[in-house]
Amino acid sequence: MNIEKILLVGNPNVGKSTIFSRLTGAKVIISNYPGTTVEFSQGHLKLGDKHILIIDVPGTYTLNPTSSAEEVAVRMLKEGDIIINVIDATNLERNLYLTLELLERNIPVIVALNMWDDTKHKGITINVEKLEEQLGVPVVPTCGLTNEGIKKLIDRIPEAKANTIPPLTDEERWQKIGKIVEASQKLTHRHHTFLERLEDLTIKPFTGLPIAVCVIYCAFWIIRFIGESLIGYIFEPLFENLWLPLMMKLSTLLGEHTFFHNILIGNFIEGKIDFGLSFGLLTTGIFIPIGVVLPYIFSFYLVLGIMEDLGYLPRLAVLVDNFMHHLGLHGYAIIPFILGLGCNVPGALATRILEGRREKFIAATLMAIAIPCMAQTAMIIGLVGPRGWKYVAIIFFTLFVLLVVKGLILNKILKGASPEIIIEIPPYRMPQLQAIIKKLWMRLQGFLMEALPLVLLGVLFVNVLYTLKIIDLFADIFSPILNNLWGLPKEAVSALIVGFLRKDVAVGMLGPLNLTTKQLVVGSTILAVYFPCIATYMVLIRELGVKDMLKTTLIMITVALLTGALLNLIL
Amino acid sequence: MIVDLTQMQPGKTGTIKEIQGGPGLTRKLQSMGIRPGKNITKVSSHFGRGPQTIEIDNMQIAVGFGIAKKIFVEIAR
After folding, report:
1. pLDDT at A1
2. What is the mean pLDDT of residues A402-431?
3. Is B58 on the interface with A (CB under 8 A)?
């Protein structure tokens, strides 16, 4: 058999991505909640002297898709030469439904019986030979997290075969599964573990809600603590003691007010370089992403990674489900929101786990407008924080109110109802240090590779706009809105322009304008609301289509105009 | 005694008797293991018309209130 493409197919959250990364060495985000993978990823496996393409497919319960992530999975099926059907050994019966559907399609299949290590403490004994005999295709017990069984899985890939069973009705399928399970699995009683008791406590409303409040409060506190400590003890000293002297030397070398000095070092503030305000490529351009944003990206993704791997997010989704229905969404829509707090791009992609177009539209619109990414948040903390935490709180409270009000309105005016939640709640798993570090590193790398160039481009762009006096032109055109409606100086238009590219740079540009605290609050809020960054916008166009995206854009502009005006009046 | 899932007390165990939903919903529930004949335990019920959590074959699933209304369970004595 000529094998060129292998697909990894299975139910959500059975560990497909873990096995994928074991097989190919490719780096993918792995978490403990259904719907982590919404797009297929591919990598290569060396088998003998051949390179085989391995494709990690989003999880699906059946071949009759119910969400767009599942649709991706079913569309991909036709392309594989072999399917590695990853199943959760602790949940044989349900997982076998998809297995039978696959077998009915006449494609060669090999089964990876994953989470094998979990069967022991759950009191499940599976006779692998019997199961293999019943299914008529190879079955290999694996544990993606520890690498157990992966080598054997690779060795047996060539044995994969199509055991064509005639198309069955649902009834027949369940009967067959019943027989298979009876022949190959034995259950024994066992005691509840500590993690299982914790599972119960966090899903019951009386204990779950207070715990959720604590978890969220602690998460914010830890993120802030780590972020501030990193800045205060590591990044600020580095910039002040190492980078500043270097830049001063370069400045002397170039000579103040020369072209290259303006571009690389920027303006002197009170006779010296100010990393926040000078706006040169090598000063502010490096300081914003590395000195201000990176520490918070680090702390945010560290905390998020632990919560993801533990399996807390689906429980949070259940607890907020009731509230989210008022916004036209169900609880699981907090997954795109939470991811959006890190970066709006993965947030926008995660809307794929939602069922309908209406829900996706609402979730994407709310996220793009009211969920500030960590880069923006870090800059707001850095810029507004020194004026008092009260003002930072006002900004985030305003954004939260916007989220709720817009959700309520959209839910009223859009036809249809919000679909109901049906999600599997995964068992808690102890987060593994190595996995946490790997995921954190991937995300930091992603930030540095994708954001850093854009930040530099943004700073360069600002300098060009100022040098060519284009800013003045825009400032005059938009001054009625900026001055009269929002109470901002017309020069703030530069921040709005750069905000299309990067929100962190845009917030940073409010710094040199000598704004009052009120103006800072209004400006930061508007920057969060009026438009997502270009990267998010492109993803949203792809996800929602041009027509819906135009609607979203109109909503954004309206909301920005109104919110700015209101804040200007109230504060 | 047959009740719908929302009327079931947390901690109680029973057997699913019937799912009164359209073919789409029935299939979706089935594929997740929620189907007539299965033993389930109610884990929790959320305030207002919140989701209902059940345990079925070692696995917890949360279903929205409206869906839970369509799942009928015979309570074990």
Report:
1. 64
2. 93
3. yes
